[in-house]
């Protein structure tokens, strides 16, 4: 489609392990159509056929065509053109862009779901007007994406923004060497600053098994043990973000995911970051997401621009 006018719709697909969501946006960002269906379990072919079926149904009902962007829980290798690193393992090793493109008769663009979050917030969300955006998702795990001038920055290996699988910076003696990570290493940032690991740290501290949201409720209630665990989480998040600022110095950082709804983060992080950034200064805005859970699917739509 390079050099030719784009069709009137931007279709975005959020491909998750349990659900597939499609959204159709007009160039102004207004939702024209939206639907979710269950993800076929364990079948690559059934998955891409389900996506194609959603696209065809949307275009038939609206009477218009669109570009198609897909957010995936992994990346497409720029060397092999096949999916790698997806936790939906049936996608790994598959030429998703080519196969889905063949079913729909058009080129497809894909990006990691965290990159889609960054693109969404940079295009018409919390980070509008910022050139370099670092978007992080603090949920069950933690992921990150980079948007520059409203476009995904992936790098030649397709892994730009894989911040969660670097070691936690400036580990304390008590933190070192860190928990085992599913990536095969230990001490990764993700093993500290995610809802899963907030629960782990609380369990290790108290012996009680609670979900991240329950722990945060106890923080708000002033429970001493919950406050202590949250303080450790805040320290770890501060160090992890300072590491990004020292390397990339983004124009802003946008937080998403369930843990991003803790309002104290937006007050405390700016105060703590100068303690770890080079020169002892930090003017980087820490912003709360605008589109929430919809950022992933909206970002997939904006992979083609407006």
Note down, in words, how this protein is organized.
- The protein is α/β, with parallel strands linked by helices and 306 residues long.
- It is 33% helix and 20% strand.
- It contains eight helices and twelve strands.
- It has helices at 44-62, 96-104, 113-124, 195-206, 212-220, 224-247, 264-272, 295-301; strands spanning 9-15, 19-25, 31-38, 66-72, 75-76, 83-84, 108-112, 132-138, 142-148, 151-152, 252-256, 286-288.
- It has a five-stranded mixed β-sheet with strand order 3-2-1-4-7. Strands 10-9-8-11-12 form a five-stranded mixed β-sheet.
- A hairpin with a 2-residue loop joins strand 9 and strand 10.
- Helix 3 (113-124) packs across helix 8 and helix 5 packs across helix 6 (224-247).
- The protein starts with 8 loop residues before the first strand and ends in a 5-residue tail after the last helix.
- The relative contact order is 0.15.
Straight-line distance between termini: 14 Å
Largest sheet geometry: 5 strands, mixed
Residue runs with pLDDT of under 50 for 5 or more positions: none
Strand order of the largest sheet: 3-2-1-4-7
Compute the number of strand runs. Answer: 12
Based on CA inertia axes, which overall geometry fits? globular
Q: What's the Cα radius of gyration?
A: 20 Å
